[in-house]
Every structure is written in C-alpha cells, then in structure tokens.
Amino acid sequence: MDKFFKLTEKGTNVKTEIIAGITTFLTMAYILAANPGFLGATGMDVGAVFTATALSAFVATLVMALVANLPFALAPGMGLNAFFAFTVVLGMGKSWQFALTAVFLEGIIFILLSFLNVREAIINSIPMNIKRAISVGIGLFIAFIGFQKAQWIVNDDFLLVALGDLSSAPVILAIIVLVIIAVLHAFKIKGSLLIGILAGTIIGIPLGVTNIEGFKLFSAPASLSPIFFKFEWNNIFTLDMLIILFTFLMVDMFDTVGTLVGVSTKAGMLTEDGKVPRAKQALLADAIGTTVGACLGTSTVTTYVESAAGVEEGGKTGLTALTTAILFLLAIFFSPLFLIIPDAATAPALIMVGLFMMTPIKDIDFKDISEALPAFLTLILMPLTYDISKGLIFGILSYVIIKVATGKAKDVNIMTYVVAAMFILKLVL
User: Fold this and answer.
1) Mean of the per-residue pLDDT values for the chain?
2) What per-residue confidence (pLDDT) applies to 17?
3) The whole model's pTM is what?
4) DSSP, res 36
5) Within a domain: residue 55?
6) What is the mean pLDDT of the segment spanning 230-253?
C-alpha cells in the first residue's frame, strides 16, 4: 500500500488514512437516507435507490482512490437530486426515467470532456485568489450545513435564518460534541473528529437523539431491478432534454471544480503554479460515477465537500478514499448501523472543518479591489446561495468585468474569458 498510494512520500501512514476515510464516510453517510427520500418522491422504489446510492458512491470513490490517488469521496449530490426530483419530475411533469436518461447522457459527455482535458482547463483558468476564496467559501458553507443539521440555526420566515432552541436535545448534543472535538484537537489527539462523532452517537442515546428502537445490525440489500437501466430514449432530441441536460452539466461541473479546488487548497495539495494534482483523473472518477449511477438508478454523482473532514484528519492519498468506498459497500448490508448516527453527532465535525477551511483567507490579496471583490463574492455567496457553483460564477464574472473595466484585461487568462461566457449562458438559460 505504501508503494501504490505513495504514503511515505506524502508524509502519511495507513492508520491516519483509514481514520480519515472513516471520518469522511461518517460525515457524508446522511446521503444514504437523504437521496432515497428525495428520489422516492418521484415514485422510484426507495429501497432500490438506497442500494443504487451506496453502489454508485462505492464505484466513483473507488475510481478516485485507485486512478486519481486523491483523498476525495463521491456520492449522488444534494441539490442535483432535488433538481432531479422536484424540478424535472414533479415540476416539469417528466418521468423519472426521462431524468435518469439526462443524467446518463451527462455522464457520457463528462467522460469525453475529461479525456479532452476541458474540465481540467477550467480548473486551471481560475485565478489564484479565487481559488483561495473557494476554500474559505466552502468552509463557511460546510459550517452552515453543520449548524443546520444540529438545529442550532433554523429557518425563519422573517429573518430567513434564526437561532434554534438551545434547550433542545439535538442542540445540546451538538454543543457537547463540538467541545469534545475542540478539546481533543487542542491536545493534538489523532482522530478527534471521528472520536467526537462516535462519542456523540453514544451520548445521544440517553438524550433521545440517537434512535436505537428496533435496531438490528444486518439488513439484506434491496433489489435494483425496479430502477436498473430504466432509460427513456424516445425524448433525447427534445428541447426539454437539452435544457435539463445543460443544467445538470453546468451545476455538476462547477460544483465538482469548486470542491476539488477548495479542498486541495486547504490541504496544501496545489502545485507551485496553482493546479490541482491529477485533476483529470479526479474528474474522470466523477464522470464514471455519474454514468454508472444513472445505470444503477440514481441522480448525478459528484465530489463531496465533506471530503474536507477526512483531509483535516490527515488524509492525503487514495487510501482515504478507498476506506470510504469500502464503507459505502458495507453500508448496503449494514445500513441500520450507519443510519443510527444522528445529525447532531456529525454536525459539529462539519462546523470544525468549516473553521479549518478558513486559513487560506490570510493569503487573499485584499489591497487590490480587482482581486478582493471577486474573492469576496466567491466566498460569501457560497453559503448564502447554498450553492458552490453560484459563488464561483459570480466570482469569475466579477473578476473578468472589473479587470476589463480597470484596463487590466491582459491579466485575464483566455480560458477564464471562455468560462465567464459559459457562466453568462447558464444564467441566461
């Protein structure tokens, strides 16, 4: 493993990588419950979607581990599954088979674009200050998700967001776990995030947050047959298919690009010229995961921001991703074990990761307004719009506009202009 994953070269070891992989899995295991819930609203078989979710995450993350040798995990993306269920199927009145066909075509296109280095070129076109801002923005986004999962922050009709009930059991548990993780981290104890999550799950039992009623260790996997390879080919040349396909392509492309850049920046993985190492292979994992996922019967597969939790635990190689992939495979058979972990136990880990992701902010050039404003828009709009790609869109667009308006057009890479044009097209459509 040392030779294959280059553990010594990367300054890591098997124990650290495995702990990092487990941590990543536990912070994103909620997708195993959330994705079937979303897609089940379309009439798809919930049990089959659970199996498809776990298998697609296993395949995509395995490719990331063995081909890209990067510590990132993939699974059907939140937001993309909501667009699949509530916009395409329930909103536009299309069948879920139609939506799956769009996802499959998206995956095929992404495979081609990955081999042609188009997506890698997009990553390389992002200015360095915006890359730093992406890391910070993802940190704020992850922390915001954590506060919501803990019910520490709740929806409010008047203020949009408000402070939750601090006397509620989930919030109390989240605060306890956050303190545990912070103290362990202060004493530089390895695996502080993982220990905190496990401790929170146990403490949550007497608090009534961890639901162990009717718990059983093993569960036979549901059959994929109701949703396996269920495509609708007769509508692939329609205008609706084109619009839906384009939306899937844009959102997935820039969500993945943002995640890869942001987490790589925080982990110190970027090369001297600011490039994500083995980006082509990483993007190929995303494309293969989406294609396979569509065949299995689930929505678009993408790289998860929760991968930052594993990176913070010291994960630096594909062994972290391999560990996460194996756990997704095991989840098919031991789903009750993984699903009892409450949100309030994993949420503090996300809040802490949000804190750790903030460090690149000190390297952003805030003296030059043509650099500062695009970076600021990038990092602030990610949590406020609940969308990584939208922060990136307005960051790049403002960067190009301000550079041109201030006579610094030559500072902008040609590919950056191309990406800006793609963003304008996305906003218009």
Assistant:
1) 90
2) 96
3) 0.81
4) H
5) yes
6) 84
List, in sequence order, every beta strand (DSSP E) within 97-217.
Answer: 153-156, 160-163
> Exposed, middle or buried by CB within 10 Å (0-12, 13-18, 19+), for 11?
exposed
What is the radius of gyration, based on Cα positions, of the chain? 21
- Domain end point (choices 344, 361, 378): 361
Residue 329 pLDDT grade (very low, low, confident, very high; cuts 50, 70, 90): very high
Residue with the two structure tokens 């990176």? 311
DSSP string, 80-128: HHHIIIIIIITTT---HHHHHHHHHHHHHHHHHHHHTTHHHHHHHHS-H
Task: Name the phi and psi angles at 136, rounded to 5.
Answer: -65, -45
Same domain (yes/no): 37, 126 = yes
Domain assignment of residue 191, given as a range: 2-213+259-361
Q: Do 119 and 173 share a domain, yes or no?
A: yes
The predicted-structure confidence for 85-144, as pLDDT tens digits, reads as follows 888 898 888 999 999 999 999 999 999 988 888 878 888 888 989 989 988 898 898 899
Vertex 115: Cα angle to 109 and 117 (nearest 5) = 100
pLDDT digits (tens, 9 = 90+) for 405-422: 999 999 898 999 998 998
Task: Give CA 126 to chain center in angstroms.
Answer: 19
Helix (H) or strand (E) holding 302: strand 301-303
Same domain, 29 and 89: yes
Instruction: State whether residue 20 is helix, strand or coil.
Output: helix
